[in-house]
Design brief:
Elements (H helix, E strand, L loop, with lengths): L7 H12 L1 H12 L11 H18 L2 E5 L3 E3 L5 E3 L3 E6 L7 E7 L19 E3 L2 E3 L7 H16 L7 E7 L9 H8 L9 E4 L11 E6 L2 E9 L5 E2 H4 L6 H10 L22 H9 L4 H8 L9 H10 L2 E8 L10 E2 L2 E9 L6 H18 L5 E10 L2 E2 L5 H14 L4 E5 L4 H10 L2 E4 L15 E3 H34 L1
Parallel strand pairs: 5-8, 5-9, 9-19, 10-18
Antiparallel strand pairs: 1-4, 2-3, 4-8, 6-7, 7-20, 10-17, 11-15, 11-16, 12-14, 13-15
Helix pairs in contact: 1-14, 2-4, 4-14, 12-14
Length: about 500
């Protein structure tokens, strides 16, 4: 569906994509069939095969492709496992054109039919206009949509208006092992002539309206361990005469957040960036259906009653979630034991301008303070095994202006500018290391079910996503040349 504002060139491109959409779906079917699960070691060969398949696809497009060897990594059992190679691809070297780098991944989360899938997760199956299969939306579909867009120019014998560089990995679902090191090594080489970086590895906020994402929350993961001795004890023999680790731990976890969702750790909100009027207006115009979101989540009631409050607390403010307790009896039946050691797991999604080291200190001091008031002889240990910083960029950047125009051309409406409540380490990683403009440009709908059973991308989103990437090539090229001419004129004056 192209809007009436489409040019003759865009119309030609969009018509080609419509005519060849079945072919593009067959390509996605071929990719989904590869069980490129990077989490399970026994499927590592499949991930490597997927990387080779993607490299061959780029080479057929005319790209120069380098499969970079990343070595191996050690599993917890001491076994060394080879890392899949990283793809660095390059299509076009016209010095007059802007160079856009696209990042994506072709590894997937684990999936089995018996987990609750309606169809075989590795057989792309179309039902009522939806294409079901593991990796359909996360992230094989968007990667192929970008390639399909570039291929359309080639098939129509049209000059590609941008130079494209590809960074495609096979370990995103397992922590992007090796990516950061490679980016650092290539920052002055592969990325030296890159103008813009685009990532399409997230989803729209709703099922119908396109979005552009300009920020995400960070994540600080904590473990709080309470130990009384070296062995579990019988509750009939020791219950009522000792300080039980589980009782201490429950009290500690209960002190973290109140019934309204507000974090109770002193000072935790002190560094949260103030909400500007410009950003506040963005929240007012964002299309977000509270009832639809409630239905998707399966809960009966949210902590807040308005769209603006919900979005602010999803994106703009920190949150604390308790995830589980290690060491506690959790199987069916009854076991009247007092665990000797229990470990609580929780995380804080932090926002600009919260500092990870300060957050850690605040958490430790708070928990130690609560624990000391209990006069417990048990041993307390608080640690932060994982910390990722938030990502934020300027949505007035030319990159976002070009994408906005492309979306208006293809979908007939402006996108919403949103943040993401989850953590997207790769966006901050690219921005920090390369010092280039980074944009999150999703094409999947909110109900696509990434990581879940019955993951899908609709035929519509896959096809229109291909069109919007092609339109984006044209828009970023026009805008880039315009900026260059303006800069040149100012320099002369």
């Amino acid at each position: 569906m192209a809007s009436s504002s489409s040019s003759a060139l865009e119309t030609e491109i969009f018509q080609y994509i419509d005519v060849h959409q079945s072919e593009f779906i067959e390509n996605l079917k071929e990719w989904v069939a590869v069980q490129s699960d990077s989490v399970q070691p026994h499927l590592r060969k499949e991930v490597i095969r997927m990387m080779e398949l993607a490299a061959n696809r780029l080479a057929a497009l005319g790209a120069t492709v380098n499969l970079v060897n990343l070595g191996s990594h050690q599993l917890p059992d001491g076994w060394d496992l080879p890392l899949p190679p990283m793809i660095l691809g390059e299509l076009g070297k016209n010095p007059q054109n802007p160079t856009v780098c696209f990042y994506g991944h072709v590894d997937v989360q684990p999936a089995k039919k018996e987990d609750g899938w309606k169809t075989d997760p590795y057989t792309l199956t179309e039902i009522n206009g939806n294409l079901y299969g593991r990796g359909a939306t996360d992230n094989k579909g968007p990667v192929l949509a970008w390639i399909n867009a570039a291929e359309t120019f080639r098939a129509l014998k049209l000059a590609l208006p941008v130079n494209i560089k590809f960074v495609i990995e096979g370990m995103e679902e397992a922590g992007s092992l090796g990516l950061e090191k490679l980016l650092e090594e290539e920052s002055q080489c592969f990325f030296s002539d890159v103008d813009y970086i685009v990532i399409s590895d997230n989803l729209w906020l709703s099922n119908k309206k396109p979005v552009l994402t300009y920020g995400s929350r960070g994540n600080a993961c904590f473990s709080v361990e309470v130990e009384c001795g070296d062995k579990d004890l019988h509750s009939g023999t020791f219950g009522g005469i000792i300080h039980e680790p589980m009782t201490d731990l429950i009290a500690l976890l209960d002190s973290l957040v109140d019934s309204t969702g507000r974090i109770q750790i002193p000072g935790i909100y002190d560094s949260v960036a103030a909400l500007t009027e410009e950003e506040k207006k963005l929240y007012e115009s964002i299309e977000f259906d509270l009832e639809e979101h409630k239905k998707n989540s399966g809960v009966k009631k949210f902590l807040y009653g308005t769209k603006e409050e919900i979005l602010l607390h999803l994106w703009r403010y920190p949150s604390l979630s308790i995830h589980g307790i290690e060491g506690a009896f959790h199987e069916p039946g009854i076991k009247t034991v007092i665990p000797a050691k229990v470990v609580g797991k929780f995380s804080i999604r932090q926002v600009p301008h919260m500092d990870l080291s300060v957050v850690k200190q605040q958490v430790v001091e708070h928990l130690e303070g609560v624990f000391s008031k209990r006069n417990s002889p048990n041993r307390l240990k608080v640690s932060m095994p994982l910390g990722a910083k938030p990502w934020l960029t300027d949505f007035n950047d030319p990159l976002y202006k070009a994408a906005r125009r492309a979306i208006k051309t293809v979908f007939g409406e402006d996108p919403d500018f949103i943040r993401d409540g989850s953590t997207i380490p790769v966006a901050r990683m690219f921005q920090t290391i390369t010092q280039k403009s980074v944009m999150m440009f999703p094409i999947g709908a909110a109900d696509d079910g990434e990581h879940s059973q019955n993951e899908k991308i609709s035929r519509y989103n896959y096809n229109e996503g291909t069109k919007v990437f092609a339109a984006f090539f044209l828009e970023i090229s026009k805008l880039h040349h315009c900026l260059r001419e303006t800069s040149s004129t100012e320099a002369k004056n």
